[in-house]
Write a structure and sequence with these properties.
Amidase signature (AS) enzymes, about 500 residues, eleven-stranded mixed sheet, 13 strands, single chain, alpha/beta, two-stranded antiparallel sheet
Length: about 500
């Protein structure tokens, strides 16, 4: 494989790569080797990849042999994918959620979504860095940092945050270190890093994709999802991942997964009714300018823009949501830890707290574990405080929130800016999270798709298309039309980009 192949795969879509492999001009082995070489060259400055799969090349070779024999499993056959390090892979890699506490064991079986990827012919390329424990350890965290991986950095400005918790997945896709990646979200962990790093992210309806084999926070809000450079790639990935799983009762509602690529439509905004959540904008003047330009474009593309359609209670969810997450994190995490059996020394949240205290120099050099302590103080999920908080969350986010907006205005989607410009990484004070719009759909369990909307101060900004439960197809149709008309995605200039801030050291 010549040096020009590296250039050819940069920004290459799944369809382009599939076509090249089908024609014989590219093999999965060559593609996998290209990404591995790029990770080795580029990622030391970004720290988006925790480890690469020692069997990736052999897997790619086997898939090439299948293709030569006339069998191609689908669009993802031979395509390398990175998996966030809170998603189980039953191979020679670890699944640690970024913590050394889980480094002593290896999962006995793949997470359901990883199994689906392997069945679709994808090459599991490696494990992506993340905000340790998916950002639920501290009240003053630094997004993108884990004890195991160090500080993941934004490829557009490495002194700025990549957002979290799926930071490594987003950065690797943005920097062309893989074709596609899996992220996970409880509230914002797909949408924020995707938008902050200039890529596409889909946070599906809770239950569309299985959560079995994923280090949990919340069974009412957790979901994996695709992180890609295009809506088409995200749709192809979502099609492969969706399906009923007997280990996750929430997926039984979904039945058989759809082919979401059939919803891709350059003219998909014609006749659509799109609401504008004005109460979820207005947090940054440069972002507002981009948003107004986007709204004008939606009108030009044939959408009926209903403005305003404010989302009720959008700012009232934080307190009850945190209460629910703390209760569910303790219960769900301890259930996950017990699944390892006696091979894992740490069986309870209290065990992990003790581990962090014993290894504070490597686990807590910058911030503590206040949320771990708060969650550990919670009782069973039958307690009144939990039941009432969950009821409030569901009522305010669904019945008196998004459901009202969609019903009263007959909307196909609600749009809002996804993020503000990325903030400077600051270990002394933690994240300076400015604003974004992930909480209402996250708490409701409804889908959210972010697509690049432009740049502010040369930092990527996204637009969010939020929908009713199970409306992923509609959102993909709208988002693909917006993407087709704008082409705002612009890769980071890694050759001439700014050096990482000097005060960050080697953390």
């Amino acid at each position: 494989m010549g040096e020009d192949v590296t250039f050819e795969v940069e920004e290459a879509t799944v369809e382009a790569l599939r076509t090249s492999m089908a024609s014989g001009s590219l093999t999965s082995r060559e593609l996998t080797e290209t990404y591995l070489a790029r990770i080795e060259t580029v990622d030391p400055a970004l720290r988006s990849v925790l480890e690469t799969n020692p069997d990736a090349i052999q897997i790619a070779e086997a898939l090439d042999a299948e293709r030569r024999s006339g069998r191609a499993r689908g669009p993802l056959h031979g395509i390398p994918v990175l998996v966030k390090d809170n998603v189980d892979t039953a191979d020679r890699m670890k699944t640690t959620a970024g913590s050394f506490a889980l480094g002593e064991v290896t999962p006995a079986r793949d997470a359901f979504v990883v199994r689906r990827l392997r069945e679709a012919g994808a090459v599991v390329l490696g494990k992506a860095n993340l905000s340790e424990w998916a950002n639920i350890r501290s009240t003053r965290p630094t997004s993108g940092w884990s004890a195991r991986g160090g500080q993941c950095r934004n490829p557009y400005a490495p002194d700025r945050s990549p957002c979290g918790s799926s930071s490594g997945s987003a950065v690797a896709v943005a920097a062309n270190l893989c074709a596609i990646a899996i992220g996970t979200e409880t509230d914002g962990s797909i949408i924020c890093p995707a938008s902050t790093n200039g890529i596409v992210g889909i946070k599906p309806t809770v239950g569309l994709l299985s959560r079995s084999g994923i280090v949990p926070i919340s069974h009412t809000q957790d979901t994996p999802g695709p992180m890609t450079r295009t809506v088409a790639d995200a749709a192809a990935m979502l099609s492969a991942l969706a399906g009923a799983d007997e280990r996750d009762a929430a997926t039984r509602e979904t039945g058989v997964g759809s082919d979401y690529t059939t919803f891709l439509d350059p003219g998909g905004l014609r006749g659509a009714r799109v609401g504008v959540a004005r109460n979820m904008a207005g947090f940054h003047d440069r972002v507002d300018r981009l948003f107004e330009e986007a709204l004008d474009l939606l009108r030009d593309l044939g959408a009926e823009v209903v403005d305003p359609t404010d989302v009720p209670h959008a700012s009232a969810l934080e307190e009850p949501e945190l209460e629910v997450l703390l209760y569910e994190f303790k219960a769900d995490l301890e259930r996950y830890l017990r699944s390892y059996g006696p091979q894992l020394s740490y069986r309870t949240l209290a065990d992990l707290i003790a581990f962090n205290e014993q290894h504070a120099e490597i686990e807590m050099p910058w911030f503590g574990q206040e949320l771990f302590h708060e969650a550990n103080g919670k009782g069973p999920l039958t307690e009144t405080a939990y039941v009432e908080a969950l009821s409030i969350c569901q009522r305010l986010s669904r019945d008196e929130g998004l459901d009202v907006v969609f019903h009263d205005h007959r909307l196909d989607a609600v749009v809002a800016p996804s993020n503000a410009p990325a903030w400077v990484i600051d270990y002394a004070n933690g994240d300076h999270y400015t604003d974004g719009n992930t909480t209402p759909p996250a708490v409701a369990g409804y889908p959210n798709v972010t697509v690049p909307m432009g740049f502010a101060f040369d930092l990527p900004i996204g637009i969010s298309f939020m929908g009713r439960a199970w409306s992923e197809g509609t959102l993909i149709r709208l988002a693909s039309a917006f993407e087709h008309a704008t082409r705002h995605r612009r890769p980071p200039n890694l050759a001439t980009g700014p050096e990482p801030a000097q005060n960050l050291g080697d953390a």
